[in-house]
Amino acid sequence: MSGRKIGQRGKGLLLAVLASALLTAILAFGVTALLMNIHERKEEAKNPFFRVVEITDETEDPEVWGKNFPLQYDLYKRTAEMSPTHYGGSDALPHVPTPEDPRTVVSQSKIELDPRLKRMWGGYAFAIDFREERGHAYMLDDQTYTGRQQKPQPGTCIHCHASVYLPYKKLGDGDLIAGFEKMNAMPYKEARKLVSHPVSCIDCHDPATMQLRVTRPGFLEGVKAYKASQGIQNYDVNTMATRQEMRSFVCGQCHVEYYFKGDHKRLTYPWFNGLQADQILAYYDEVGQTDWVHAETGASMLKAQHPEFELWNQGVHARSGVACADCHMPYKRVGALKVSDHQVRSPLLNINNACQTCHRMPEDELKARCEKIQDNFTQMKDVALNGLMDLIDSIKAAQSAGVAETQLKTARDFHRKASFLIDFVEAENSTSFHAPQEAARILVLALDHIRHGQLALAPTLAAAAPATAPAPPAPPETPPAAPQESHS
Fold first, then answer.
1. 418: nearest Cα among 387, 376, 464
2. Which of 160, 289, 290, 380 sits at a 20 to 30 Å CA gap from 257?
């Protein structure tokens, strides 16, 4: 018995030793595998890309850059995805291709959704066609085939809708600014033949170092003028801006207000007095800029473009040092790599990465707060647009009544000012979120211009109105009828 017990004990001990050894081996294997994985990831992080092809300052095609940066390129291609938000983004609408417009999908028409916009831009190309903006993948085609091409367009428009760095340099024989000036003066259809891609890697990155850079002359000159207005002379954005500033400045190359200066249609950012809407309006008044004459009122009008950079500069995020890329291109993890999300899109489509890194609250709450801000702004904008329609009606009535030209001129000037300010926040693509208090201030200024425009015409319109005929006398009071006898 005792021998058998000793044998069983020995066997149990052996099994325990073997199990322990096996467990140790498994743990050792697991730890070794983990350490190897960590080492591999560290090596990946040391070498964020593998150079497959040589990229130079003449490599324009983003697909070639994508051979060295496949993660970023895959995300860049996803800008072709169409996703709506409550107040923005875009729905994919089917479109029957024609020889003039081969697109099979377009976004919704804004002037069909809100006919007041068509009237606000009466006589201008935007009254023909204006649609919700789509991703960068469509920026060149959507401009090429817009109905606005029914009116003559200058080559200046290419500046913000194509990869222009290399075409400008080629056109200027190596001189970026000379090529920019030559393309500005061309008809759009002629300039369009010189560009091949929408915004590309080369427009924002130095191919030798991959550092961010500004390549578009409009911003190079515009930010220099703006800094000069602040007392900073000879500002060179590519040598004097911080890296965090550059993460907004590369976006500000295109998402800005601008105008075509002079007969050569030179693209100019109107930042000589500052970036606020009324400062830009004051500059336009100083230089006598007119984009078109309104079809109904005869006023000299101004068309605002897409001033996201200007409005963002007035908001709390800009004051807190938050860059455009922090919200629209937030960092994401892919394996061991941290990459900037090149699927440039609304933060509301990417709340986890775009918002919750700073704002520790549920996605639904963040989305609700944003949409509440946009709801309030939309209500204010509706009031302003309705007021603008009333002012247009008043000016038309005054013209029909033969009101003196001096009074009409005053009212038309207020029409010009009010329309530009409303258009400034309408054309801006955040539905006020970039700076809601500033957007509200702009609408209040617009309403004040509308009020002054109507007051300028009120006395004359009242005098010109036909006299109101006196009301007919009231009929004599009918005596109450005698009660009738009832028969039961």
1. 387
2. 380
250 within 8 A of 210, measured Cβ to Cβ: no
Q: Are 179 and 171 in contact (CB under 8 A)?
A: yes
Q: Which residues touch 429 (CB under 8 Å, ≥6 apart)?
A: 88, 133, 255, 306, 308
Q: What value does the CA radius of gyration of the chain take, rounded to a whole number of Å? A: 32
Enter the pTM of the model: 0.86
Contact (CB, 8 A) for 175 and 166? no
pLDDT, one tens digit per residue, over 368-387 is 999 999 999 999 999 999 99
Residue with tokens 């002054």: 452
Query: In sequence order, what are the residues at sequence separation of 6 or more whose Cβ sits closer than 8 angstroms to the Cβ of residue 162?
Result: 139, 140, 195, 196, 197, 198, 199
Residue 479 or residue 328, greater confidence: 328
Category of 302 on φ-ψ map: left (φ > 0), alpha (ψ -120 to 50) or beta: beta
- Identity of the amino acid at 443: L
Which pLDDT score, from 0 to 100, does residue 32 have?
Answer: 80
Q: Which two tokens stand for residue 85?
A: 């938000």
Please write the tens of the pLDDT for every residue from 142-174: 999 999 999 999 999 999 999 999 999 999 999
Q: Are strands 337-340 and 331-334 parallel, antiparallel or unpaired?
A: antiparallel
